[in-house]
Amino acid sequence: MALAATSEPVSTLKDVAPAARQPAIEIDAVGKVYHSSDGAVTALGSVSLDIYPGEFISLLGPSGCGKTTLLRIVAGLEDASTGHVHLRGRGLDGLGFVFQRDVLVNWRTIIDNVLLPIDFKNKKPKAYREKAQQLLATFGLKGFENKRPWELSGGMRQRAAICRALIDDPELLLMDEPFGALDALTRDELNVELQSLWQKTAKTALFVTHSISEAVFLSDRVVVVSDKPGRIVEVLDIDFPRPRSLDIREEPKFGQYSRHLRGLLEQHGAFRKD
Ligand SMILES: Nc1ncnc2c1ncn2[C@@H]1O[C@H](COP(=O)(O)OP(=O)(O)OP(=O)(O)O)[C@@H](O)[C@H]1O
């Protein structure tokens, strides 16, 4: 395990057969400048990263460093000012997105919220209803299909939002701090459920978080992004076998990874002294 900070981002994947080495997501020198009434804000410097099929990658960085911006550019919700993103496979049609807040539609039932992407894509919801029911059952929401979002807890709503992201069987799962607003126990529970689902379905996952331990627990690689304008300062391989239980957080290696990442975040602006 090499934990030394490097100035060059590392984006190679070990132990992968050459045929599988085509990235699922290629982020090539992506930069973003926002123009507002207060002037120009450079949210992202120049970010390059290759993400391989079936990888679980976390973006970890200080508030405002451009993590959401990068995710939105990958999802095609935002244009890059410079550089480009290339998605293999189904492209944007193969994306599932889970936002910071669940953004469920209050006037739709839970199952109809899960079916929303199917409606948007003008596919026949009937064919997907059984799948929606299965997904909701997998995420502990059996019996809540016909409730409205306000009748569910925050954790349950976020589970429903994950089901919605999965309904059209995406190849790429983009998640923007999906568990940030949840209590610690629910967050742990959902981390384990997410890992299990990701392992079963072999999706490529790009996950934004502020939590060092969540990033280490879930990821194959943790990408550390510097303070605004965001750039990659290091990509850390997390070498724990899968499936991982929450007990790995007690292991010395987990502590080493966490300390190393905390040190990088301190160096790169996560803990301001002002
Ligand atoms: N639409 C916009 N117009 C102008 N500035 C924006 C816009 N969206 C984001 N920004 C600015 O770009 C920078 C990066 O924002 P972004 O939301 O990507 O950061 P982040 O790392 O996801 O933050 P957080 O972790 O707090 O969610 C911030 O300074 C933000 O104020």
Automatic annotation (TrEMBL):
GO molecular function, one term: ATP binding
Domain ABC transporter: start-end pairs: 25-252
Parts forming coiled coils: none
Pfam families (UniProt xref): ABC_tran (PF00005)
InterPro entries: AAA+_ATPase (IPR003593), ABC_transporter-like_ATP-bd (IPR003439), ABC_transporter-like_CS (IPR017871), ABC_transporter_ATP-bind (IPR050166), P-loop_NTPase (IPR027417)
Alphabetic keyword roster: ATP-binding, Nucleotide-binding, Transport
Family per record: Belongs to the ABC transporter superfamily.
Protein name: ABC transporter ATP-binding protein
The organism of origin for this protein: Pseudolabrys taiwanensis
